[in-house]
Specification:
Number of domains: 1
CATH architecture: 3-Layer(aba) Sandwich
Mean pLDDT: 91
Largest sheet: 6 strands, parallel
Structural class: alpha/beta
CATH class: Alpha Beta
Shape: globular
Order of helices and strands: EHEHEHEHHEEHH
Radius of gyration: 16 Å
Strand order of the largest sheet: 3-2-1-4-5-6
Strand content: 15-25%
Distance between the termini: 50 Å
Number of helices: 7
CATH topology: Rossmann fold
Length: 194
Amino acid sequence: MDKQRIGILGGTFDPPHIGHLIMAQEAAEQCNLDKVWFMPNASPPHKQENGVSPGNDRVEMAKRLIDKVDRFKLLLIEFEREGPSYTVDTMKELKGKHPDTEFFFIIGGDSVEALHTWDRIDELVEIVTFIGVKRPGHEFESPYLDKIIAIEVPLIGISSTMLRERFRHEKNTKYYVTEEVREYIEVNRLYDKR
């Protein structure tokens, strides 16, 4: 039996947006993935805790983002254990739980170039294949290029930081996020004070 091919798209998802959907769909299509699991970080070690929305809000937004897409699934493994969420620990745990699955970790170009700073990266690249999303016409620079499948995705200039600002200042966010995510943010006034 062929191994199932699963892509993992991790992030703070604060908020999740259409760029995440496009990235996941393109990785799935171009790399022949069976599913993409969206994995919100519980306690991202590289982000200040007070600068990130509460985990329950980020989980709910991610859930609403992918709710109608059969190929996408929510993965809450990092909320099931305490402490900082290091990708190497998460992937070891996933490999133990799903030994017949081939895992791919989907990252953007900025993460590719910072890969050498990830915790226990030499160990991590031996247990997971990275899918690096390139900006059209831009080449990666990384000592781990031989461990990365490079794919090109249409340039979507949306960031969660930009969206938080747009919500805070009540600027247009239509089509940047799904209606379900936008409604959740507005009803709960998530970015009014930050």
